[in-house]
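Researcher: We're teaching a course module on how sequence relates to structure. For the next exercise, students receive a sequence and then see the predicted structure as tokens, so they can try to spot secondary structure elements on their own. Here is the exercise chain.
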Amino acid sequence: MPRGGKKGHKGRGKQFSNPEEIDRQMKAQREMEANGGAEKESSSGSDEESSSDEEYENKKKSGVEGLIEIENPNRVSQKSKKVADIDVNAPKELSRREREEIEKQKAKERYMKLHLEGKTEQARADLARLAIIKKQREEAAKKRDELRKEKEAEEAKAKR
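Model: And here is the predicted structure for the students to work with:
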């Protein structure tokens, strides 16, 4: 037996509601909607301005809010903004991460520009290394040419 002593419900019988009971419940619900809707229409037409204030005060509070009055200065209530109040052309404030990412990207672009111009330490070192390699390759090419010419001269002497 599992802990807690609770058994499964697989063997229980199923309960079905009969159609007459469903019809009775639906009729009762329609009557409540018809009566409640007429009362709401008559009261909302008289004071539209005061109803918005009442809605704010009578807003259904969930959990402990309904039981205890809270005076928390740090609590931020969510206020809905009207479409007319929103300024589309206002500059968007970036978060710290976005701002740092943009700065990092600009710094990288600036460095690459200087690097291509040959003004950074790394670029200077690369250019010096490339110059050395170029010299070595030229010297190697000269040696190969000299060796090839010597071989051709030896072959020419051997044929005579």
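Model: If you want an answer key for the exercise: Residues 17 and 66 are 36 Å apart (CA to CA). The radius of gyration is 44 Å.
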